[in-house]
Design brief:
The protein is α/β, with parallel strands linked by helices. The protein has seven helices and eight strands. The chain has one domain: LmbE-like (Rossmann fold), CATH 3.40.50. Helix 2 links the parallel strand 3 and strand 4.
């Protein structure tokens, strides 16, 4: 992530969050919302701004070989963890939309399933009319993250006026190849000071028990959990956001 040169990005004060207005955060998996932008979401709610969350995938592939937690149980567990995390961020339960796309195979807008997802996103964004939409960095090195951003962008392109689109970083912190990083003139980046709500963000991350060391899904040796080094990126008192640079 050092190639992102985040130290060159200006740091905006916590109060800047309110200027984004009503916001929809789109998460490929349960926990991306807390990891990538939990601080911003907490600050938005603190400022009285409406926040909604769209969960794209069913989240079932984190522990695909678990017998104690078959796929449906994993889906229910992870969605409940997400609801708990949103509560920690003061986002109401009714503000959550789950699309239940297949984890590990979120479709692209050119696929039939992807076209249906674009339609669902378009209807949701038309109903909520957010000023800002938060999506993963367009080349975040996970296929579900890239597909999510492509689906959201396809939906946003149909809206008039279109909401502002900001991109947050999850996997690029540790897994980005040089080609995954922002290219010169491609985006503008900034950091947001989330220090007043950092503890709140950590509570939201902690709600995702199944993805952390000591996961209750303990019968799949191949199962996924976030490493301490990965979690350290999300313990910083700043969050990074990227936005397409003006033409």
């Amino acid at each position: 992530m050092s190639a992102f040169a985040v130290t060159d990005y200006p740091v905006l004060p916590p109060a800047a969050a309110a200027s984004l207005g009503s916001t929809v955060v789109v998460a490929p998996h349960p926990d991306d919302e807390s990891l990538g932008c939990g601080g911003l979401l907490a600050l938005l709610r603190q400022a009285g701004q409406p926040v909604w969350c769209v969960l794209m995938s069913d989240g079932t592939m984190s522990h695909p070989n678990s017998r104690r937690f078959p796929a449906e149980a994993r889906r229910q567990l992870r969605q409940q963890e997400l609801r708990t995390a949103l509560t920690a961020l003061h986002i109401p339960a009714e503000a959550l939309l789950c699309l239940d796309l297949p984890d590990g195979a979120v479709p692209l807008p050119t696929d039939t399933a992807g076209q249906a997802a674009v339609q669902a996103l378009t209807e949701f964004l038309t109903a909520t009319q957010p000023a800002t939409v938060l999506v993963p960095w367009r080349r975040d090195p996970h296929p579900d993250h890239r597909a999510t951003t492509a689906l959201v962008q396809a939906a946003v392109d149909t809206l008039r006026p279109a909401p502002r689109v900001l991109e947050y970083v999850v996997w690029a912190w540790e897994r980005a190849a040089p080609a995954d990083l922002p290219q010169p003139g491609e985006v503008e980046g900034w950091q947001l000071d989330i220090s007043p709500v950092l503890a709140q963000k950590q509570l939201a991350i902690a709600a995702h028990h199944s993805q952390l060391p000591g996961s209750p899904i303990d019968d799949d040796p191949t199962g996924f959990t976030l490493t301490p080094s990965m979690l350290a990126h999300f313990a910083r008192p700043q969050e990074v956001y990227l936005e397409t640079a003006p033409a």
